[in-house]
Design brief:
The protein is 39% helix and 29% strand. It has 109 residues and is α/β, with parallel strands linked by helices. Helix 2 packs across helix 3. InterPro entries: Acyl_CoA_acyltransferase, Gcn5-rel_NAT, GNAT_YJDJ.
Length: 109
């Protein structure tokens, strides 16, 4: 793996989740350029988010960054006592494979 990719992975793991409520997305910068990982949402109410789409830059897809982003956003929401719905098929898959035990109290259907 390249140093650039390892740096992006580290940024994704260690950077704060940014809630861009005006754009209805959570984002994490991947590097000093414009590369960001995002999860778009619709806000159902003050305490509930419908996570509708995950976006990782095309050249970085398939390297595990989406799974890291999913975990970070699930953790962010759970730590803030927010519920979430998983409309995004990728997030549904990641949740079912890796995180259903940890975050089941926060997921709504």
């Amino acid at each position: 793996m390249s140093n650039r990719f390892l740096s992006m992975k580290s940024n994704l793991i260690n950077s704060s989740i940014i809630n861009c409520s005006s754009k209805m997305m959570f984002k994490v910068p991947l590097d000093s350029s414009d590369n960001v990982a995002t999860i778009r949402y619709e806000q159902i109410d003050e305490n509930t988010f419908d996570l509708v789409h995950t976006d990782i830059p095309e050249e970085l897809q398939g390297k595990g960054l989406g799974t890291i982003l999913a975990e970070r956003v699930f953790e962010h929401l759970a730590n803030n006592n927010k519920k979430f719905k998983l409309t995004c098929e990728f997030l549904q898959s990641v949740y079912e494979r890796k995180f259903c035990d940890r975050y089941s109290a926060f997921v709504i259907t």
